[in-house]
Amino acid sequence: MIFKYMNSLKSLYIALLFTGFSWNTVIAQESNSFFLHTIEKGQSLYSIASTYNVATVDIIKLNPGCSEKLIAGQKLRIPQSKTKKQSRQFHTIQSGETLYGLTVKYNVTAEDICEVNPGLSAENFKVGQVIVLPANSTIDSEKVKTTKSQPAIRPAVEPKCKDMHKVKRKETIFSISQEYGVTQEELIAANPEIKKGLKKGEFICIPYPTPKVEAKVIPSDTELFNAKKNRDKKLSVIKAAVILPFMLDAGKKAESARMVEFYEGFLMAADSLKRKGTSLDIYTYDSGNSPASINAILAKEELKGMNIIFGPLYNSQIKPLAAFAKENNIKLVIPFSSKDNEVFNNPSVFQINTPQSYLYSEVYEHFIRKFTSPNIIFLDAEDKNGEKKEFINGFKHELLSNNITFKELKASHDAAVLSAALSSTKENVFIPTSGSNVTLIRLLPQLQLLARENPATSIHLFGYPEWQTYTQDHLEKFYELDTYFYSSFYTNNLLPETVKFISSYRKWYSKDMINTYPKFGMLGFDLGYFFLNALSEYGTGFEKHLSQNSFHPIQTGFNFQRVNNWGGFINKKVFFVNFSKNNELIKYDFE
């Protein structure tokens, strides 16, 4: 019985070999339901789900426990979408795979793959990278199935000899092979007996010459990427559109004023570039605050000819505007929103405000670089709103991952309890769990007293971007406590370029900028100059040269990185601003 089973198994194995089937094919087909994603620094479950157009709950089902924490470098199983609405398919690059190999596997051209993955290059084509597959791709396993179903056809029997030759006196193997255009080796293979010598009058077989097969030259990844069709072009005139809500109703006067100020700074940037010889056509549209109003603007024929669009303000208008920009190959700069997810699937989008998870990740990394061996004390502000809960939880996790311990105290504790938590040999960094001004008003006097009672101890206060708006109220205390805060926007009113801009703005518009964080006039200038100058210098493919842009912004930090191979760019720039004990204002940009 066992012998019979083994014979059957052997027969089955042989049959599978002849049908072109393999166990690897089965495994590959089973894994088509998911692919692997390597978690990158700053990614959240939401951003990963947005990247692949799947629900977070579906990722959690395949990866139990991932909702509790994500660790950079670990791999997640991502379900391949099956719905028509989310019909994109993805592929994780495996060891040994090449761009040419993928073109064969999915029956597409290298240009097809590069077209839908503008972030893919010879430099980042490596194991673990995920790419989106072109819509016309079909996996080679379909060919296997077709081949398997075809009936076997016996090849026609071909004669072995092309001719028969009667050996003449003085003929040699070499002379006969030359006469018939075959090699000596082919002649001997067809007539093994002639190795002992040729005999006059005998007949020998003249074989068909072996057809010459030219070796197929497989192009390298670098050659294929270099052969990409170059669609970038220099621009003699840059066409830019600004789409923002300028004329809002009476209940939103403050918002309208900020948009006007942004546009005023933008016009100052355009004027500066025109003075340098850059030709610009600026188109301005009032977007209102409804989806209907943005649709009316998108219907205008001239908008299709733009090279770049700045806007909008409202999240409800981003999706249609982003889709329009992608369809017409127009760069879209989103100045304000950080919560929209269009950037994850639209290569045209440049998002200025960093998504929260990426921003926090940059802050944690810079903090650990700045304070190498700190004594960290979190001060629980008992804030019921919990507006910094996600930041604090992520911070604690990052510290523990780097073997850095911390202490947790109530912000209401008296000076004696705070003093007992100090270290005499390390830098003591106090981090409140709220960024509100109310928390600062309650906390600063206690820390100020603590610093005075421990003059030989290193004490720092670390906090949040909104502290910029409270600087005038707490400036002396900030200096005394050697205070740090992080921010993507910062300017010092004492810097020469800031003084010059403030003066120019006042001359242009006979008014001062609104006292907000950030300054919208400076934001408009920085964005306008950065992107319009990049278009002027490098043309429509300026995103390949972002790191070469020599412009030094007044207020806004710029460090753009593509979120994936098929998506757009987010701005990851974060500053640390330090009010030092020497009454100096220092900006750390960690470049």
Provide the descriptors you would attach to this structure in a database record.
20 helices, 20 strands, alpha/beta, 591 residues, 7-stranded mixed sheet
Task: Provide an overview of this structure.
With 591 residues, this protein is an alpha/beta fold. It is 38% helix and 16% strand. The chain has 20 helices and 20 strands. It has helices at 2-18, 23-30, 45-52, 56-62, 99-105, 110-116, 141-149, 173-180, 184-190, 221-226, 253-275, 291-298, 315-327, 356-370, 389-401, 415-420, 437-453, 471-480, 496-509, 520-538, and strands at 34-38, 75-79, 90-92, 130-132, 161-166, 203-207, 238-244, 280-286, 308-310, 331-334, 349-351, 374-380, 406-410, 427-432, 459-463, 483-487, 560-562, 569-571, 575-579, 585-588. The strands form five sheets. The chain has a seven-stranded mixed beta sheet with strand order 8-7-9-10-11-18-17, with helices on both faces. It is elongated. Mean pLDDT is 86; it is low at 1-30 and 142-154.
Output the number of helix runs: 20
Structural class: alpha/beta
End-to-end gap: 74 Å
Could you tell me the mean pLDDT?
86
Strands ordered across the widest β-sheet: 8-7-9-10-11-18-17
Task: Outline the fold blueprint.
Blueprint: H1 2-18, H2 23-30, E1 34-38, H3 45-52, H4 56-62, E2 75-79, E3 90-92, H5 99-105, H6 110-116, E4 130-132, H7 141-149, E5 161-166, H8 173-180, H9 184-190, E6 203-207, H10 221-226, E7 238-244, H11 253-275, E8 280-286, H12 291-298, E9 308-310, H13 315-327, E10 331-334, E11 349-351, H14 356-370, E12 374-380, H15 389-401, E13 406-410, H16 415-420, E14 427-432, H17 437-453, E15 459-463, H18 471-480, E16 483-487, H19 496-509, H20 520-538, E17 560-562, E18 569-571, E19 575-579, E20 585-588
Parallel strand pairs: 7-8, 7-9, 9-10, 10-11, 11-18, 12-13, 12-14, 14-15, 15-16
Antiparallel strand pairs: 1-2, 3-4, 5-6, 16-19, 17-18, 19-20
Helix pairs in contact: 8-9, 11-20, 12-13, 14-15, 17-18
